[in-house]
Amino acid sequence: MNYIELNNKVLIPQLGFGVFRMDEGSQTYDAVRWALDAGYRHIDTAKVYDNEKSVGQAIKDSGIDRKEIFLTTKVWNKDINDGNTKQALDDSLERLGLDYVDLYLIHWPVRGYEKAWMDLEDMYLETNKIRAIGVSNFGAAELAAIDKRVKPVVNQIESNPYFLNQHDIAMSMKEGMAVEVYSPLGGSKAGGSDSILVNPVLLELGEKYNKSAAQIVARWHMQRGLIVLPKSTHKERIESNFDVFDFTLTGKEMAMIDALDQNRRTGRDLAYMRDQWK
Ligand code: A2P
Fold it and tell me: In the 8-state DSSP scheme, what is residue 260?
């Protein structure tokens, strides 16, 4: 496993497991158990995914030392709007059945995010409930607007071969943050007919290394220096997406994947979210 050192010295496993759009109950529980069995030690959930209970139960039942697992959750827009971030963390911890999370993120910079950030700073500085704090879906303007007692350790944003998002990645890194990428395989569209995972360039590279297109993409993200959070509900895919530590793409191959960029976002953009949560 590769680790990245965050700007507060905490180590984060570079390859994590995302659980967006997984149902509370056996779907999430099984997926997290399979992921932990396969070797993942980094799980990324959120209040709004509505599956924290199953994530926490799977971690507990895995028998793996809690300290070996890096767990992220996020405060949702309603609690940000309502100024309810401190209570939201306690509620997440209760659903998770844990006494701390490794990383707590502001999910979107919607109305009230500046106050939410100060609440995260307070909780980070004054309690043992969080080992690191960060942001998600922030641009340069939002980063400039938040209090500077604590620097965010990460910005979690979308990136995949059809949406490189290079500008925000470079900006975040320049600000001293690590970058986590969501929808790394193309998100919910990964299964569609225009799926990234049937792109001929990726399939050809897969043939060369005896890997799937998903494995090629995961490896590409890692070689870009990013923290990557692929997700799947299928055991074989969960296992194979983790099997990406035994090959290295050449510089030319990295550039071939970079060149697939269509600047096509799969998820929501900030303007939409702001409008929904004003
Ligand atoms: P499923 O849960 O049915 O496996 P992302 O990680 O970019 O958010 O998107 C993951 C999407 O791609 C999920 O919908 C997942 O669907 C699918 N997926 C994940 N891993 C693979 C894989 N190795 N091969 C094909 N599809 C995959």
Answer: T
| Amino acid type, 198 | V
Q: pLDDT by residue (tens digit) across 9-65?
A: 999 999 999 999 999 999 999 999 999 999 999 999 999 999 999 999 999 999 999
Ranges of beta strands (E only) in the chain are 3-5, 11-13, 17-18, 42-44, 70-75, 101-106, 130-136, 154-158, 178-182, 227-228
Conformation bin of residue 63: beta by default, left when phi > 0, alpha when psi is -120 to 50: left
pLDDT in tens, 165-182: 999 999 999 999 999 999
- The catalytic position among 29, 40, 49, 113 is 49
Look-up: residue for tokens 């028998």?
Answer: 63
Q: Determine the residue of 17, 49, 189, 231 to mutate for testing ligand 1's pocket, defined as the one with the most ligand atoms within 8 A of the Cβ atom.
A: 231
Burial class (CB in 10 A: 0-12, 13-18, 19+), 276: exposed
Q: For ligand 1, which residues put their CB under 6 angstroms from it?
A: 18, 183-188, 190-191, 197, 212, 214, 230-234, 237, 240-241
- Burial code (b: 16+ CB inside 10 Å, e: under 16) for 148-177 equals eebbbbbbbbbbbbbbbbeebbebbeeeeb
Total residue count of the chain as it appears in this document: 278
- Rounded to the nearest angstrom, the distance between the alpha carbon of 187 and the centre of ligand 1 is 7
Active site residue 49: yes
CA distance 195 to 165: 18
Q: Is the entire prediction scored with pTM above 0.85? A: yes
Determine the Cα angle at 68 with ends 66 and 69, to 5°: 70
Question: Hunting for tokens 């700073």 — which residue is that?
Answer: 121
